[in-house]
Fold:
Amino acid sequence: MEQNELYPIFLKLHNLNVLIVGGGNVGLEKLSFLLKSSPNANVEVVAKEFHLEIKVLAEKHSSIKLTESKFKKKMLKKRHMVIACTDDLKVNKKVYDLARKRYLICNIADTPDLCDYYLGGIVTKGNVKIAISTNGKSPTTAKRLREFFEEVIPQDINQMVENLNEYRKTLKGNFEEKVKRMNEITDSLKNKE
Structure:
C-alpha cells in the first residue's frame, strides 16, 4: 500500500518571502489559501494581468505586492518559496527549474511531479491548526475532511489550549516530569471506549 511520505510543517509566512507567478483564477486560489491561514504573509504576485479579486486582496493586505510583468529569473532572488500557476506550461516549468537551481521550494499548480510541497486542507480553531494531505491525490477529499473536522472540533478548544498553556508555565521539575503531567491532563482528549 502506498504511504503518504510528506512531512507537514507550519511556516511563519510573515517571516518568509513568497512569490506567486500567475494572476488568474488559480493564482487567486493560491493567494486566498495562503492568506486564509496567514493573513500577514509576505507575498509578491507577478503576472501580466491580475484577476480583479487579487487586486482587492492586495488592497486589503499591505503585505501583498502586485507586479505587472512577465516572469523574470531575477524575481527569484531573496525568496523562500515559489508557486507557479500560469496557463503556460513552459513558463511554469521554467519557474520550477530555476527555483530548484536556487534550492527554493516550489509548487507548480496541478503538476504533482513539479511540486516540492502541496497546499493541503487546513482547519483552524484559534491556536489549533490541523493540516490535511491526500498526497496530492484528491484535493476534494482533503476539502471534505476539512469540513468534517471544522464541524466536530469544538469552538472552545482554543480556551482549553490557552488554559493548558498557563498551567504548563506553572509546572516545576525536569522536562520528563512536565511531559508526564501534561500527558495525564490531556489523556481525556482521547476517545475511550
Remarks:
- DSSP finds six helices and seven strands in the chain.
- The mean pLDDT is 92.
- Helices lie at 25-37, 52-60, 89-101, 139-152, 157-170, 175-186.
